[in-house]
Amino acid sequence: LPADQRLDFVSIVTRNDTHFPIASEFLNAGFNIICEKPLAYSLAEARKLCDLVRRSSKVFALMHNYTGYPMVKEAREKVRSGELGKILKVVVEYPQGYAVGRIGAKDAQISNWRAQPSIAGISNCMGDIGTHAENLARYITGLEIDEICAELTSFIPGTSLDDDGNCLIRYKGGARGILYASQISNGDENNLNIRIYGTKAGLEWHQEHPNELIIKTADKPVQIWRRGNSYLSDAARSATRTPFGHPEAFIEAFANVYLNAAQAIADEVSGRKTRKRGYDFPTIDDGWAGMAFIETVVKSSAKGARWVKFPSLQRNR
After folding, report:
1. How far apart are CA 176 and CA 180, in angstroms?
2. Element (H or E) spanning 294, and its range?
3. Which helix (H) or strand (E) holds 36?
4. CA–CA separation, 226 vs 236, rounded Å?
5. CA distance 228 to 253
6. DSSP letter, residue 191
7. pTM for this one?
8. Arithmetic mean of pLDDT, 280-305
9. Nearest-angstrom CA–CA distance, 228 and 242
10. In angstroms, rounded to a whole number, what is the distance separating the alpha carbons of residues 95 and 93?
11. How far is Cα 44 from Cα 28, in angstroms, rounded to an integer?
12. Helix (H, G, I), strand (E, B) or coil at 178
């Protein structure tokens, strides 16, 4: 089609098992992609998509929407600027309780496709929400995982995939982490949260109270930084869409990821060079890391919660 009639990108919001065939078809046809997470059905498919994206030179954005929150961006800036010092420990949690009612019920199984291995892949809970926790820690800290020790549990009878999981994480460079994701945490709704502790300070962010970032130090009172104020970083202010005091969250975070991806797509479509500062959205590499996380967690749990080395993206290349 003529340039003014041609689609600039395709948005993939289908089930896990369809991401790879749809994305690969459109990449081969020359389209930019914005894709839901997890990236693919398996790590093997993720590797193939990584190769396709590199050969095509097309924009590939992964929809980890929590990276679009202004105060998540503020947290990232504080880590990058060295305000926390050397990162020592990361604690990230994603508890939900929506599935606990299936335990003991006559029709006990989770009724959605995420619990079906033929559609979801090798994990339910960790694949669905654990990957958000992994990505949030990766986005804010920039740390790469070295090893994982994990235990997955299926509390709901008749379900082969996990509905709860606990991970110990060793990051490259020496930091240590705890990641917990659950769908049977009774009373929790969507309680994604993260705490990061460095040698100079710590920070804390809660998805259910997304407009606040908590900063903690040993020798000062706790500080609460709020979205929309002039004292925030450029990254946080540029992601802010409403004045301070007006709640802003979930939908706007999706819009921020799309907006940042659209900047890269506009440059690609127009033939302009990639911007020196880059583009602030999750990429194909983040998608690969998420699939590697799922596979490593499942392997560790299957081995009786043994430490398992995290695959290297460089080896994949």
Report:
1. 14
2. helix 284-302
3. strand 32-36
4. 10
5. 14
6. -
7. 0.94
8. 98
9. 7
10. 6
11. 18
12. strand
The sheet that has 60-63: what strands, in order across it?
9-12, 32-36, 60-63
pLDDT 10s digits, 231-260: 999 999 999 999 999 989 899 999 999 999
Angle at 14 between CA 11 and CA 18, to 5 degrees: 105
Helix axes 70-80, 131-141, angle to 10 degrees: 50
- For CA atoms 287, 54, 10, 20, give the dihedral sign: negative
β-partners of residue 194 are 92, 205
Contact 133, 94 (CB under 8 A): yes
pLDDT in tens, 147-197: 999 999 999 988 899 999 999 999 999 999 999 999 999 999 999 999 999
Report how far residue 140's alpha carbon sits from residue 78's, in angstroms, rounded to the nearest whole number.
9
Q: Tokens 């994305």 sit at which residue? A: 23
Q: Which segments of 78-186 are extended strands (E)?
A: 87-95, 145-153, 164-171, 176-182
**Cβ–Cβ < 8 Å for 76, 84:** no
Q: Where are the alpha helices (DSSP H) in 189-271?
A: 234-238, 250-270
122 Cβ contact list (under 8 Å, min separation 6): 42, 161, 294, 295, 298
Q: Running DSSP on this structure, what letter comes out for residue 68?
A: G
* Tokens found for residue 36: 């839901």
Question: Which residues, at least 6 apart from 239, have a Cβ–Cβ distance to it below 8 Å?
Answer: 68, 69, 70, 73, 256
DSSP state of 165: E
